[in-house]
Design a protein that fits this description.
- This protein has about 325 residues and is an alpha/beta fold.
- The protein has a single domain, classed as Rossmann fold, CATH 3.40.50.300.
- Helix content is about 30%, strand content about 25%.
- The strands form 2 sheets. The chain has an 8-stranded mixed beta sheet, with helices on both faces. A 4-stranded antiparallel beta sheet has the order 2-1-4-5.
- Strand 9 and strand 10 form a beta hairpin.
- Helix 3 runs parallel beside helix 5 and helix 5 runs parallel beside helix 6.
- The protein starts with 5 loop residues before the first strand and ends in a 6-residue tail after the last strand.
Length: about 325
């Protein structure tokens, strides 16, 4: 396979939030939403990011998008450190990276037509309105929607149509990278399949790089090349999708996969191991391995020492004492 270049490089990324203590307490508490994360995203790949709510997935996406200020480490996009980028470099970054949020309806102005919504980012980037209108029509057709929808308002469209408009709006600026936050969570199953197939077609046609954030492991199985599993702000396992989904190594990844619905009717009778306990607190993080209070395989070492990275293969890493 041809070696692909790294388009996003995350180096020891940290994002912490300070929150006030309770009324009678002094000082502030720190929420470690993303904790010392290093990762490369290759050009043209689809990277899935999974984990329970509160694991730091969306915060990491916001750090990459520069929507929230990084606490420590660095984010490089095409070799440019976003935290130290000049005004011109940041403008170029906005052209390269597009985002599609979870609820497309809430991100469209109800008083604007579809045409105006797609044109707005183009006009903000300096494109003349006449050219922006032409681009809006071209982009709408690329998501398999008819010209007549240009003059519709958001309330006149279905969930699937709104999602296609959101994709068209993101594609209008011809990005190289798209960050998709729960791209199918609000859609019917049949519409989900249509949107996922559309995203795959567009990725192949335009050689896009996707970062897909979702709770739906079936979406990850279908669309991604590689999967990153996060727990309480840290990566616990990263590897090819087929390996992570069929032969995971970290106890947390195994528990996640066991908790997902079984679509194969021949396997529905198998016994499932359900993860016990609640996700830990990002304020009071456990000592050692963060997952050890819920881990059925925990050893004494897990409560004392944080596990380092173990490479099980060239493209498969896990952070677990059991895998040393």
């Amino acid at each position: 396979m041809e070696q692909r270049n790294t388009v996003i490089h995350l180096e020891h990324v940290r994002k912490e939030f300070s929150v006030d203590n309770r009324f009678f307490s002094k000082g502030k508490r720190t929420v470690k939403a993303v904790n010392d994360l290093t990762l490369d995203i290759k050009k043209g790949e689809i990277l899935g990011l999974v984990g329970e709510s509160g694991s730091g997935k969306t915060t990491l996406a916001r750090v990459i998008l520069s929507l929230t200020k990084i606490t420590g480490g660095s984010v490089l996009v095409d070799g440019v450190d976003i935290g130290k980028a000049s005004k011109e470099e940041k403008k170029e970054f906005r052209r390269k990276v597009a985002v599609m949020f979870q609820d497309p309806a809430s991100n469209l102005n109800p008083r604007e037509t579809v045409e105006s919504s797609i044109m707005r980012p183009l006009v903000l980037h300096g494109m003349p309105k006449k050219e922006a209108r032409k681009k809006a029509l071209e982009t709408l057709r690329s998501v398999k929607m008819d010209e007549r929808y240009l003059y519709s308002y958001p309330h006149q469209l279905s969930g699937g149509q709104l999602q296609r408009i959101a994709i068209a709006r993101a594609l209008a600026i011809d990005p190289q990278i798209m960050i998709l936050d729960e791209p199918t969570s609000a859609l019917d199953v049949s519409v989900q399949a249509q949107i996922l197939n559309l995203l795959l077609d567009l990725q192949e046609q335009r050689n896009l790089t996707y970062l897909v954030i979702t709770h739906d492991l079936n979406v990850i199985r279908y669309i991604s090349d590689r999967v990153v599993v996060m727990y309480l702000g840290k990566m616990v396992e990263v590897g090819p999708t087929d390996v992570i989904c069929t032969n995971p190594s970290h106890p947390y990844t195994k528990a996640l996969m066991a908790a997902s619905p079984i679509l194969d009717p021949t396997l529905r009778g198998r016994e499932k191991s359900i993860m016990k306990g609640d996700p830990g607190s990002l304020i009071h993080l456990p000592e050692g391995c963060h997952f050890h209070p819920r881990c059925p395989c925990a050893m004494a070492l897990c409560a004392k020492e944080e596990p380092g990275c173990t490479a099980l293969a060239e493209d498969h890493q896990v952070w677990c004492h059991l895998c040393k």
